[in-house]
Design a protein that fits this description.
- This protein has helices at 2-17, 75-87, 101-104, 121-131, 134-145, 148-161, 186-196, 203-206, 226-229, 269-286, 325-328, 379-392, and strands at 32-33, 47-52, 58-62, 96-98, 118-120, 210-213, 218-221, 233-241, 245-254, 257-266, 287-291, 301-304, 310-311, 313-315, 320-324, 331-336, 340-342, 350-358, 361-370.
- By secondary structure, it is of the alpha+beta class.
- The strands form 6 sheets. Strands 1, 14, 16, 18 and 19 form a 5-stranded antiparallel beta sheet that branches.
- The longest helix is centred in the last third of the chain and has 18 residues, at 269-286.
- The protein starts with a helix and ends with a helix.
């Protein structure tokens, strides 16, 4: 018996000093969503995409990675950078913006700013988002970054951070520059639109139908007609040049679910609105978000050689899944967890999975992670256990 206890103690030491079989990578939690057959739709524009805001799930795409001129869709990125400056405390809506000669020289859509004219950042931003004012876009860009060129560098840097791998901005407006023009893809427009609508402040401007600046002397009318007649419309931006043709990034929310429909290079203005409306209606009719929670209490997992005997698994974050409406009420769950895990255990370390299925079809695999960290016991603690084994016969 004494020999067996000694062997058990040696095994404890070996286990303590050997590498653990699994470590947390530190990567953020993301569910693995399994593609399944879905309803279909078609739109009569060359470039389009339909995305859900919260999950980033793409429900439809049509030639979504071909670069094309963006026209005033560019101002989504301009507005995003301005709102980020405001939320960082470096800019206030009450700040006074002074119009430069360069800003006043802009053509196309404008509010006819004059060199030296001053206006609050709130009214400049309103003119940009509601009426697509090129002069206000340049004035804001210069105020934020010093020059429009410096602001454009920030635009391209932010695009890279958002994963917009096929887009290049040449200015803050989307106007052609001689023979050169900015270019984007439908997917990239959806990505920057998704980033913009994370900022609730944008709705203060993007949902305006008609308003004024200059103390009521100059009227503004929203270029996005969906704001007027489409249920739940929240924005976002139109665009047109002879090369870009008719473009639209449209957002709408119903029952807490918001979608982004991007259509580029439409043949007519009516076509872009009809196509975006069709995509949004398709999304609302066929998909819904569900909250995923384990159907039963998750059991604690035994931790070998840990300072705590067990660790409690939890669902990684509070995930929501975008599912087809016809399957959302029929999903089932399977929990897979090990009986034990070696220490150390990091908080957030993946321990197992929760598989969500619709009949025989798996729709998502969601990690189950450690709710707390559990450190490995020290050598001193090992020998204390060893002594208890020797003198009491138990650990």
């Amino acid at each position: 018996m004494r020999g067996k206890r000694i062997i058990a103690g040696i095994l404890l030491v070996l286990l303590l000093t050997s590498p653990a079989s699994a470590f947390w990578s530190g990567n953020p939690w993301e569910p693995e969503v399994i593609p399944v057959a879905a309803p279909s739709i078609s739109v009569d524009v060359p470039f389009a995409i339909l995305m859900e805001k919260e999950t980033g799930a793409v429900l439809f795409e049509q030639d979504a990675d071909t670069p094309t001129p963006p026209a005033s869709i560019t101002k989504i990125m301009t507005t995003l950078l301005v709102l980020e400056e405001i939320e960082a405390g470096r800019l206030s809506l009450d700040d006074i913006i002074t119009t430069s000669r360069h800003a006043a020289s802009m053509g196309g859509s404008q509010i006819y700013l004059e060199e030296g004219e001053q206006m609050t950042a709130r009214d400049m931003l309103k003119a940009i988002v509601v009426s697509s004012a090129n002069d206000a876009s340049v004035a804001m860009a210069e105020h934020v970054a010093g020059t429009e060129e410096a602001f454009v560098a920030r635009m391209n840097q932010r695009a890279a951070e958002l994963g917009m791998v096929n887009s290049v901005f040449l200015n803050s407006t989307g106007l052609p520059m001689d023979a050169r023009e900015s270019h984007v893809t439908a997917r990239d427009v959806a990505l920057m639109s998704r980033a913009l609508i994370q900022h609730e402040l944008v709705r203060e401007f993007s949902m305006i139908w008609m308003d004024t600046v200059r103390n009521g002397e100059f009227g503004l009318s929203n270029t996005n007609r969906l704001i007027y007649y489409f249920e739940g419309a929240t924005g976002l931006k139109t665009g047109f040049t002879q090369t870009a043709m008719y473009c639209l990034a449209a957002t709408a929310e119903r029952n807490g679910v918001e979608y982004i429909a991007v259509v580029l290079h439409g043949a007519t203005s009516a076509q872009r609105f009809e196509s975006a409306q069709a995509l949004l209606n398709f999304a609302f009719a066929n998909y819904t978000l569900i909250d995923v929670r384990p159907e039963a209490v998750l059991p604690p997992i035994r931790v070998e050689l840990g300072e705590a005997d067990t660790v409690q698994p939890i669902l990684g974050g509070h995930p929501r899944l975008l599912l087809e409406r016809r399957t959302a009420s029929n999903v089932t769950q399977i929990v897979e967890l090990p009986d034990f895990i070696p220490a150390p255990v990091a908080a957030g370390q993946e321990l197992g999975t929760l598989t969500v299925s619709d009949g025989d079809a798996i729709v998502a695999v969601i990690p189950l992670v450690a709710g707390d960290a559990v450190e490995k016991i020290s050598l001193v603690q090992v020998f204390q256990k060893f002594l208890r084994l020797l003198f009491t016969g138990g650990l």
